[in-house]
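Tokens in:
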């Protein structure tokens, strides 16, 4: 099931609760791109003006009738949120001040508070919590002054003091706005963290896949090209004196190149169609005789002791590649033309030991570049170990210990 189709997350939580609703992600993108939220601002302005007209008719005998100045204050309070993504602090104080002037003039109670609520919400979500709290506190304190002290000198005339029960309602309204805004801010930060973690996990998986493909290509090409290089030298040396032996070398080159092309094509197929089953099974220790035969074609005699056990596909592939790389390094870096491979399996772990008698030729025996690093990465990915280094008698040894059962990730 695709990630976007997943109905529930951990603990049965809906997917939108874990990842954020689509409109919220678009809101984040709009904020990052610096676009203006003019649609929501226009909708808010129309609603505030229409709702205030309706409230003016309903409160005609109690509050002052709307005047052009009152409508101007409503427009200012409603249009200011157009800048809420760029200047949230200015907007939240501006809308609170406009609403305070509107109420002080005795105009009808109405949806002007929605503009303050939207500005407060935007400020808290943007991280300006203290500014939002201060603006709401200012609005509430101003309302208390007007409703319980300044009402004697402010319109409408003859207006009595408000009840403290109404003040409790206003305070509850302010606390509810702050609570909803804080919840939204917390969820937004959590969604941002989870999106960053998912992006990091995706990049990590891509890096791991890239390293895996690089290891596969290195192991396939290094081995095959080493065989081809040796046989090409033999063919050139014997082309005039022993044409039949030169023909045998060319045959070996053809077989090695064909096998290399097949394995490279298999690796590239995983890039073209990720997730599909490979067209050919991955190599394992059951192909050890083929590896010995290829090494023989490169002039290396390999003695194998022990029987290849039945292993998980990943462990089997890693074991095969480790033996392949070790023999390739003997061909390339060792003066010895003999190597020994020993397999020991005790049910818990597979021990691979590859020895040659040296000495090193030109470069350090066993190699010192990507080959040993790739072997160590393969072993470490399975929870195993690799030890590689010269022996006291002048030879070189590679010792790999691979667990038979690999613990699945996340289990």
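Residues out:
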């Amino acid at each position: 099931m695709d990630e976007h189709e997943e109905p529930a997350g951990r603990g049965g939580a809906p997917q939108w609760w874990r990842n954020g609703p689509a409109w919220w992600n678009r809101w984040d993108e709009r904020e990052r791109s610096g676009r203006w939220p003019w649609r929501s601002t226009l909708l808010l302005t129309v609603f505030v003006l229409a709702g205030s007209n309706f409230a003016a008719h309903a409160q005609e005998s109690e509050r002052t009738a709307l005047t052009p100045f009152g409508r101007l204050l409503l427009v200012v309070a409603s249009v200011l949120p157009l800048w809420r993504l760029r200047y949230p602090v200015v907007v939240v104080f501006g809308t609170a001040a406009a609403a305070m002037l509107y109420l002080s003039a005795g105009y009808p109670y109405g949806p002007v508070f929605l503009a303050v609520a939207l500005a407060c919400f935007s400020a808290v979500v943007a991280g300006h919590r203290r500014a939002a709290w201060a603006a709401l506190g200012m609005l509430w304190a101003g309302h208390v002054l007007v409703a319980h002290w300044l009402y004697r000198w402010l319109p409408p005339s003859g207006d009595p003091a408000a009840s403290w029960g109404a003040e409790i309602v206003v305070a509850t309204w302010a606390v509810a706005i702050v609570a909803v805004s804080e919840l939204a801010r917390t969820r937004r930060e959590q969604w941002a963290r989870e999106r960053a973690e998912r992006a990091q996990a995706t990049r990590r998986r891509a890096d791991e896949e890239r390293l895996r493909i690089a290891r596969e290509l290195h192991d396939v090409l290094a081995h095959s090209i080493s065989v081809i290089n040796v046989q090409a030298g033999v063919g050139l040396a014997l082309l005039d004196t022993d044409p039949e032996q030169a023909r045998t070398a060319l045959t070996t080159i053809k077989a090695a190149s064909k096998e290399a092309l097949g394995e490279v094509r298999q690796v590239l197929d995983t890039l073209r169609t990720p997730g599909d089953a490979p067209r050919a099974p991955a190599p394992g220790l059951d192909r050890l005789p083929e590896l010995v035969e290829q090494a023989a074609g490169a002039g290396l005699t390999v003695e194998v002791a022990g029987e290849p056990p039945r292993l998980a596909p990943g462990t089997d592939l890693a074991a095969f590649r480790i033996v392949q790389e070790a023999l390739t390094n003997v061909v390339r870096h060792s003066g010895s033309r003999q190597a020994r491979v020993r397999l020991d399996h005790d049910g818990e772990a597979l021990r691979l030991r590859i020895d040659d008698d040296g000495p090193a030729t030109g470069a350090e025996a066993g190699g010192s570049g990507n080959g040993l690093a790739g072997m160590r990465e393969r072993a470490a990915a399975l929870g195993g170990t690799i030890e590689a280094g010269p022996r006291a008698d002048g030879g070189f040894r590679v010792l790999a210990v691979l667990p038979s059962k690999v613990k699945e990730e996340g289990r």
